[in-house]
Amino acid sequence: MTPRRTLYPPIEPFESGMLDVGDGHSIYWERCGTRGGKPVVFLHGGPGAGCSADQRRQFDPALYDILLFDQRGCGRSTPFASLDHNTTWDLVADMERLRAMCGHEKWQVFGGSWGSTLALAYAETHPERVSELVLRGIFLGTEREYDWLYRYGASALYPEGWEEFAGHVPEDERGDLVEAYRRRLTSDDEATRTAAAKAWSRWEALVVTLLPDPAIVEHSTDDEHAVAIARIENHFFHNMCWFEPGQLLANAGRLKGIPGVIVQGRHDCCTPPESAWALKKAWPDVDLQIVPDAGHLFSEPGITDGLIRASDRFAGKEGI
By three-state DSSP, how is residue 135 classified? Predict the structure, then answer.
């Protein structure tokens, strides 16, 4: 077997800053790799997760000019955990501001989980600005996907975790857990908000890895991280990500002519493969790679391998 690729060595940004995007928001951005190299923008998940240093390492730094940014309300962006003026379309507009700031005519758009959703929304809005798409763990923002995570689906695979998650709210509120959690995550009481955020984030942390990973659960339930990701995720999901029903699939024809790779874990219990398959059928040109021994996270070996090979391929290093 060909050895699986691993992340490139750690790197530090050559430039970083805050961009005032209006509406009271300033977003943190950083550029890594080589100024003037192949432009790529990395889109983190959640929504609300923020960027990490390891996410810089999915690209050959000698060949890529890598932009990472913390989306509104999370990471180093301000105001922290804000829901005001924080929608999918605000983030799409922020990406255009960042592209113009960098002086790129077009760029590769690279994102996983919620990052794949935002990548698709951006590419379908601005296809002329996208050189390639590299996507992981496809989430299309459909009611079926929300139901899988918050009504029935993942609950059958993780019954003990589901019981804890649903049990955080009274039984008479469990018919709509997204709404029940929304009330608590937007409460005026800090203790109520934090407890709900930790319960919400713990449930997600349980379903994102193929094998149990206590470190992921611990990180996800850290108070500050949990509050940002739970509040912003819940806000987006409560509003169906501001999409019309089936919008991303219906508009997939706008992706025609954009080279793309999807790396999807076969056993992804957060964003199951059926969404990736549906996107492949709507966008036949994309190279869909289903990893047989992987779940959801980019750090799982088969997912890392597929993403590194995709970024190398689009930088002219195919076969290495």
Answer: strand
Helix axes 88-102, 114-125, angle to 10 degrees: 70
| Its pTM surpasses 0.85 | yes
Cα separation of 268 and 148, whole Å? Answer: 12
Boundaries of every domain in the chain: 15-142+242-314, 144-241
Structure tokens at 197: 């955020």
Q: Would you place residue 320 in the very low, low, confident or very high pLDDT band (cuts 50, 70, 90)?
A: low
Is the predicted pLDDT of residue 40 greater than 70, yes or no? yes
Mean pLDDT for the stretch of residues 209-231: 89
Sole residue written with tokens 């689009």: 314
Distance CA 232, CA 17 (A): 23
**What are the C-alpha distances in Å from 270 to residues 1, 8, 132, 165, 232?**
28, 26, 25, 15, 17
Q: What CATH code would you report for 15-142+242-314?
A: 3.40.50.1820
Over its C-alpha atoms, the chain yields an Rg (Å, rounded) of 19
Query: How does pLDDT run across 109-141, given as a tens digit for each residue?
Result: 999 999 999 999 999 999 999 999 999 999 999
CB atoms within 10 A of CB 160: 8
**CA dihedral (94, 121, 276, 49) positive or negative:** positive
- Give catalytic residues, as residue numbers: 113, 268, 296
Report how far residue 88's alpha carbon sits from residue 94's, in angstroms, rounded to the nearest whole number. 10
Report strand pairing: 130-136 vs 107-112.
Answer: parallel
Q: What tokens appear for 221 in the block?
A: 């339930």
- Give the C-alpha separation, 64 to 36, whole Å: 8
The β-bridge partners of 291 are 265
Q: Which of 132, 182, 73 is nearest to 311 (CA)?
A: 132
Look up tokens 């850290």; give the residue.
222
**CA-to-CA distance for 95 and 140, rounded, in angstroms?**
19
